[in-house]
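User: I'm preparing a small set of examples for a lab meeting where we compare how different chains pack in three dimensions. I only have the primary sequence for this one, and I'd like the structure in token form so I can line it up with the others. Please keep the answer compact; I'll paste it straight into my notes.
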Amino acid sequence: MNIEQLNERHIPFSSLRYSTEAFIDYAIPECSPKYNYALVGPGVSQNAKQPVSLREPHGFQVGGVSMPHGRINPPHLHFSCEVFICAKGQWRIQWGFNPEARHVDIGELDIVSVPTWIYRGFTNIGVDDGFLFTALGRDHTGGILWGPATLAAAAANGVHLTQDYRIVDTRRGEALAPGEQTLQPMQPQDIAALRDWSPSEMAQRVVRANDLRFGPHSLLDAVLPGGGGQLAPVVGLGLSEDRHAVPPVAKAHGVSLEWLRLPPGAQVSAHRLAEKQVVTAYRGQVALQIRALDGSARYCLEGSAQGWDTYAIPGGVWREFCNTGAQDAWVLMMTAGDHRKRIEWDPSVVAAAHQAGWALDADGCVAERHFVERAQR
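Assistant: Understood. Below is the structure token output for the 377-residue chain.
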């Protein structure tokens, strides 16, 4: 890609545009306002006018949501993964509603992977609007199903959802087309037949910031001067080169999630991946440099209480990360696919690691060079 094409993949937080009418629950007082963002892919929005920062398919999608204190997102069901990443505030993630709701509370940098085929919702229990990022599995999510009570509450306020997932707001003079039918919810017996997830089972899908396990040998270049980057797996098989790395949530999602932590001044040296990757800065300042066909493109990504910048890296391009701030930088890496990703390092990085006594073994994991070479004789 050339620099102009790469620039289109930069998604500063200040550039985001939202919809407050992405779903029928905008008609329900306790659910509104809700600010729905679509960063990569359209997500599950039911509003054709939903702003989307980057529509290119990535194998997964990235969105965001913000609501005032006390507002709720009512029960709905997904057919592909929905992962919540708490960027700001305190949130109550609820599930089940079958009939009772269960919940887990999360704070900054906590991540929850909600299983498919269960009803879920969330409530802002923090003191401000807060912000959740979401990762959705697959390019085609299958949409969502609202709970019967939500459809009924929206209809009572004059807003309906058709079988083709078109929102009809009768308060604006809109009406169903001749022969058009409203969406029929799941029947009680169908909801009762859904799997019941216990609190202990759901706890295994909650990855808290304090429980992350960063690997000192998760990247080959970490042993080099100026290195020091570490990865902590969260969901699925990512790109860690640490043979001891185990993702807390191992089930296939269509996307892997892991945290990159960079000390001040540290870098991740030149490398590339075959897969598409979306990175979001949650803390600190990171410079992302990408080799383009017509030069080099550099993007400054910053994460703070004021916003979190994102970049969608195309597959096959050489890239480098550098912490340009005075504190540890935290970057969430979301990479397409359920398989383990293999990093291709610039040959100069491999040579420098060899000189320092390190190499990648046959399984692509960081190891002491003398053991690897001894086994290959």
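A couple of notes for your slides: The radius of gyration is 22 Å. Residues 212-376 form a domain with the Jelly Rolls fold (CATH 2.60.120.10).

User: Perfect, thanks.
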